[in-house]
Amino acid sequence: MHTTRKRRLVALTVAGAAAIALGAGPVLQGADPANAASGDVVWSQDFDGAAGSAPDRSAWTNETGGGGWGNNELEDYTDSRDNSALDGQGNLIITAKRGADGSYTSARLTTQGKYTPRYGRVEARIQIPRGQGIWPAFWMLGSDLPQVGWPNSGEVDVMENVGYEPATVHGTVHGPGYSGGQGITSSYQHPQGWSFADTFHTFAVDWKPGSITWSVDGVAYKTVTPADTGGNPWVFDKPFFIVLNLAVGGSWPGYPDGTTQFPQQMKIDYVRVIDNS
């Protein structure tokens, strides 16, 4: 994201940081990352399971806590099924709620220490929430985060939306010398000018050695290469982990107001990594 410093980053133990390209961890049945051909799905989370159950714990960890996450956010992230659960129809639902006392809860899920791809088409089919102060994101962080810190770890924001821009999504990279408000960023407008919250859309990056290309529903809208970093280090040729979260408030999106309705839900149909070599 292109805000001041974005999120409080929890340093978890990173097992498998030396994973091979396209990573380790749960894969689609029949797909072998070591023998994948271009176009093969090498990792997939389809969120099939009973309504109210947790997402696959071999793939996802719930990060918890509040404190603003570096962006003056309002939510407290929990591990409660009230905030993240399967819906029994093949979707993961991340729910942001407002309590009777005016506090907010939501969820943030990460594959840190469980799945760390290096390169591939990283995509998710998501129906985002809506409303002033609502901030859904699908993104990645370098798996060496605990060792080198942010922004040296690198960050790839595959999709972010701030509620006051219902027809716009953003794609950004952050690294040393181009972080926070200086992140290398671009945006994509809904071709009909409709709200992205109206239905599901597929958000993706095609990530290869020395390049990252963003797309929405198969339409590419931005490519970044080392030539775009202004001479600063390119930190994206290494394993990254995946993050899904739904924030409430913050310096960039602003804060909920009288028009914002709760609960709000971010619905994720699937997350996939596809060999694009």
TrEMBL record:
<feature type="region of interest" description="Disordered">
    <location>
        <begin position="47"/>
        <end position="74"/>
    </location>
</feature>
<keyword id="KW-0378">Hydrolase</keyword>
<keyword id="KW-0732">Signal</keyword>
<protein>
    <submittedName>
        <fullName>Glycoside hydrolase family 16 protein</fullName>
    </submittedName>
</protein>
<dbReference type="GO" id="GO:0016787">
    <property type="term" value="F:hydrolase activity"/>
</dbReference>
<feature type="signal peptide">
    <location>
        <begin position="1"/>
        <end position="23"/>
    </location>
</feature>
<comment type="similarity">
    <text>Belongs to the glycosyl hydrolase 16 family.</text>
</comment>
<feature type="domain" description="GH16">
    <location>
        <begin position="27"/>
        <end position="277"/>
    </location>
</feature>
<dbReference type="Pfam" id="PF00722">
    <property type="entry name" value="Glyco_hydro_16"/>
</dbReference>
<dbReference type="InterPro" id="IPR050546">
    <property type="entry name" value="Glycosyl_Hydrlase_16"/>
</dbReference>
<dbReference type="InterPro" id="IPR000757">
    <property type="entry name" value="Beta-glucanase-like"/>
</dbReference>
<dbReference type="InterPro" id="IPR013320">
    <property type="entry name" value="ConA-like_dom_sf"/>
</dbReference>
